[in-house]
Amino acid sequence: MPRSVETAEVEGKKVLVRADLNVPLENGEVADDTRIRAAIPTLQLLLDRGATAVSVCSHLGRPKSEEDRAKYALAPVERRLREFLGDDRLSVLENTRFNAGETKNDPNFARELADGNDLYVNDAFGSAHRAHSSTEAVAHILPAYAGLLLLDELEHLGRLLGEVERPFVLVAGGAKVEDKLAVLEHLGGRADRVLIGGKMAEEVRDHNPLSYPVELPSDVVAASSFAENAEAEVAAVDSIPDGWLGLDIGPETAERYGAIVEEAKTIFWNGPMGVFEWSRFAAGTKAVAEAVARADAYSVVGGGDSVRAIQELGLADRVSWVSTGGGASLELLEGKELPGVAAIPEA
What is the DSSP letter of 241? Predict the structure, then answer.
């Protein structure tokens, strides 16, 4: 494990913190402050231990042009952060991706970030899989430490890679199997049951790229088109009307998956069972989420849509760990080294 911020001597020091403040904005305001709240424990620790200044940096979105600067400015994020931590020692730097050197891991930009600071803390697990100036290069310029959230993510996700209590159930959904193929191979081969839903189920059924058996839906909620108000009906997977789309797992599959999940002792869930943003196609995802919450198990939920579902259903506090990682979670569970973690000295 990388060395912890808790071991750093921060009194009287100026600290640069890389947080993950890549949050959704609506009408110039923060729409979901989950990642902001996740960053607070590390920032509060530094302030409580006497840091004279704490400068927070993060990316926000994917700005492509000068016109994107207003859209992706961090001012709304700073306002929300100050509602939690109204300390004058705290400041938020502008979007790191406004500098072209960020995504190139430019050491010159890293030196700009490091200038005037005494040490560096990386608490942005969601960006730790990227070798960028603010996540990797700067860790070679300043004494580097891992933040509390980063350490928690490594610990909780790491448990899935060790000896686990069985049955171990892996639930995977979402749109593209390619995005999750490596983690399915690396982690799924260790699982007792692998349940596939969402668009992934069609791809796996038509051409299974995996080297082990998986559970697939037996029925779906089919729709005449990809539209919220489309005509819809429950159909067996081999009886879907021509031209119709499966937009959720059906009730039979939801009951079967739920029963399997509820009996598990270790669970990893990544990806919804259907287009859960539309209420008519949300029942399958809800059934899985409720089963995860009911299970007497060590449960981890990762991936933006799964996390959103578990939070919107008010079940996050009944899950062992809700990961903020997205792509970083998947890469860690693939067995890959994360550049933002590797750059921090070992404890």
Answer: P
Instruction: Estimate the crossing angle of helix 304-312 against helix 283-294, to 10 degrees.
Output: 80
> 49 an active-site residue?
no
Give pLDDT, residue 146: 98
Closest Cα to residue 235, out of 253, 249, 222? 222
Is 284 considered catalytic here? no
Averaged pLDDT for residues 283-291:
97
Which member of 14, 111, 327, 336 is catalytic?
A: 327
The catalytically annotated residue of 147, 304, 326, 340 is: 304
The full set of domains in the chain, from first to last, is 5-150 (3.40.50.1260), 160-333 (3.40.50.1260)
Q: Is 35 a catalytic residue?
A: yes
Q: Is 147 in a helix, a strand, or coil?
A: coil
Tens-place pLDDT, residues 21-35 = 999 888 889 988 889
List pLDDT tens digits, range 168-183. 999 999 876 677 778 8
Q: Which of 176, 189, 294, 335 is catalytic?
A: 176
CA 336 to each of CA 94, 182, 183, 186, 294: distance values in angstroms, whole numbers, following the listed order = 30, 10, 10, 10, 31
Q: Is 14 a catalytic residue?
A: no
Closest to 313 (Cα-Cα) out of 343, 273, 346: 273
Query: What is d(CA 86, CA 193) in angstroms, rounded to the nearest whole number?
Result: 47
> Which of these is catalytic: 13, 35, 130, 286?
35
